[in-house]
Amino acid sequence: MAFASVAVGLVFGLIGATAKLSNSVIARGAATAYTAIVRGIPELLLLLIIFYGGSLLLQQIWRSLGGDSYVEIQPFVAGTFTLGFVFGAYATEVFRGAILSVPKGQIEAAHAVGMGRLQVLRRVMLPQVWRFALPGLGNLWLVLLKDTSLISVVNLNELMYNSRSAAGATREPFTFFVAAAVIYLAFTIVSMVMLQYSEKRARRGVRQS
Amino acid sequence: MDFQLMIDSIPQLLVGVWMTVKLVALALALGICIAIPLALGRVSKNPFLWMPVYSFIFIFRGTPLLVQIFIVYYGFGQSESVRESIFWPFFKEAYWCAIFTFSLNTAAYTAEILRGAIQAVPHGEVEAAQALGMPRLLMLRRVVVPRAFRLALPAYGNEIILMLKGSALASTITLLDLTGVARVIVARTFAPYELFLIAAVMYLVLTLIIVRTLKYAEWRLSPHLRPPRYSD
């Protein structure tokens, strides 16, 4: 679930960052509106809009196309899409910062030695953008991990939903919610260790003071 | 789109807005009161002081707010001792549960922000205060904390907005905040677009107000960074 959302989110983020830095006024405006709106409304509300509103919209489109069966968005799809959408908005800002912090001289130097646009992107920009963006993306990943719990509100069988039904069945809510909290904490610790490792790896070419 | 419904439901949603504002404001106020001692404990060198504070912060930042709010609202009632203690009338109410959870949650995040700010206070200023013979508490009160506040303001602004968005979770424990009211009306009218979109707009407006206020506060608190105004 979280992985799928990150994949969707990274795509949104990269598109958003490119749009924000592009020369086209329309692309820039659209990207700015996207980040401003998504960052301004609660994830829960967005999830509700996409889950309930989205299925209604799809239904209407389907009806007008002549279909008469019942269309419903799977909670998993709605959840992944929402979280990816939100992640993308924040990631846009992270990527924008990272792209801007690649020294201009290096890009010029790469052009000067005759690298093509794609080559510059692959050999010079991406390795460094990755390094600059990693701490920010790491934070976003931790936020996302916790936001997955929201999807239980639209009844998807994830960790939180399961602990809710277990709590309901056994009448021991405290035990099960604490268990859920411990599992989330364990995920957080594992992610933090992995993030530290990959940050170190991305930094291996940089002199440490 | 049923615009009539949108307009008709605005008064009810505004009641929800008021609830949301109340929740957020109270939680932030309590949160910052808890956060200041926490942040000071976090930077202390005494392991008996910083270790418990660190684990408190880690636990609150490492688990979802939804889990925390469920533990408090549904979970606390499980044990006899809580139900018989004097706190029970307090934890019985969804409203106070939400305030309790939100305050502790935002306190953990704020403490971490303040810690960064405290450590960013220029060392020279601390030394100068010490050289003047200020006792530790006076120095904290007069030099470190006010300075740290200014440094923490942008990050704290983010935290306020996160809190505003987090407050939507109060709707999951039956509270009628903005999201809660919208969900109730949706359940009655089955018009998810109209209600949720208008609620989204209201959240956006709230966010905008917060952002503007913070910009102004930042401007007020940094007169030394403003370009000088020459009057002649």
Q: What would you note in describing this structure?
A:
The complex is a heterodimer of chains A (about 210) and B (about 230). Chain A has a domain of about 140 residues: MetI-like (MetI-like fold). Chain A is flat. Chain A has eight helices and no strands. The two termini of chain A are about 40 Å apart. Chain B is mostly helical and about 230 residues long. Chain B has a single domain, classed as MetI-like fold (Orthogonal Bundle). Chain B is built from ten helices and no strands. The radius of gyration of chain B is 21 Å and the shape is flat. The model of chain B has no long low-confidence stretch (mean pLDDT about 85). Classes of the chains: A mainly alpha (about 210), B mainly alpha (about 230). At the A-B interface, helix 2, helix 3, helix 6, helix 7 and helix 8 of A face helix 2, helix 3, helix 8, helix 9 and helix 10 of B.
In a nutshell, what does this entry contain?
The complex is a heterodimer of chains A (209) and B (232). By secondary structure, chain A is mostly helical.
First and last CA, distance of chain B? 58 Å
**Average pLDDT value of chain A?**
79
Q: So what's the CATH class of the domain at 2-143 in chain A? A: Mainly Alpha
What is the overall pLDDT average of chain B? 85
Helical residues, percent of chain B:
over 70%
Shape of chain A: flat
Helix content of chain A: over 70%
Query: Based on DSSP secondary structure assignment, what is the total number of beta strands of chain A?
Result: 0
CATH topology of chain B: MetI-like fold
For the biggest sheet of chain B, the summary is: none
Task: Give the key terms.
heterodimer; A: 209 residues; mainly alpha; MetI-like fold; 0% strand; B: 232 residues; 81% helix
Please render the helix and strand layout as text.
The complex is a heterodimer of chains A (209) and B (232).
Chain A: H1 2-21, H2 25-40, H3 43-64, H4 75-100, H5 104-112, H6 117-147, H7 159-170, H8 173-202
Chain B: H1 3-43, H2 47-62, H3 65-75, H4 80-84, H5 88-92, H6 94-120, H7 123-131, H8 136-166, H9 178-189, H10 192-221
Helix pairs in contact in B: 1-2, 1-6, 1-9, 1-10, 2-6, 3-6, 6-8, 7-8, 8-10, 9-10
